[in-house]
Amino acid sequence: MDLSEIEQLIEAGIEDSEATVSQPRSPDQNHEDAHFAAVVVSPAFADKSLVQQHQMVYDALGDHMTTDIHAMEIKTYTPEEYEQHASSE
After folding, report:
1. Which residues cross the membrane (predicted)?
2. ∠ Cα 45 63 74 (to 5°)
């Protein structure tokens, strides 16, 4: 799966979201394109637990999580949390 395709799926599935997807590890022979990392920012995450936020991302990816994506590292933020995170780096 293409990185932009994953970003589009997440953004279509989570209201007002902005997703940035990367490949955080070197490809391996068995799953060379299947390991991804996503940073997702959305006001829809407000008042949701971390587990609920990650479930929203998994739901947006649907069946791709069992067919095209072997592993997904997820970081979720509300816009306010992301602004604080970005300014602390």
Report:
1. none
2. 35
pLDDT in tens, 18-47: 999 998 766 666 655 578 999 999 999 999
Q: Which residue has the higher pLDDT, 89 or 15?
A: 15
14 DSSP assignment = S
Which tokens hold the place of 42? Answer: 């959305």
Closest CA to 79 of 38, 46, 37: 46
Residue 59, phi then psi, degrees to nearest 5: -60, -40
Q: Which of 52, 81, 51, 70 lies closest to 6, judged by CA?
A: 70
Residue reference for tokens 């006001």: 43
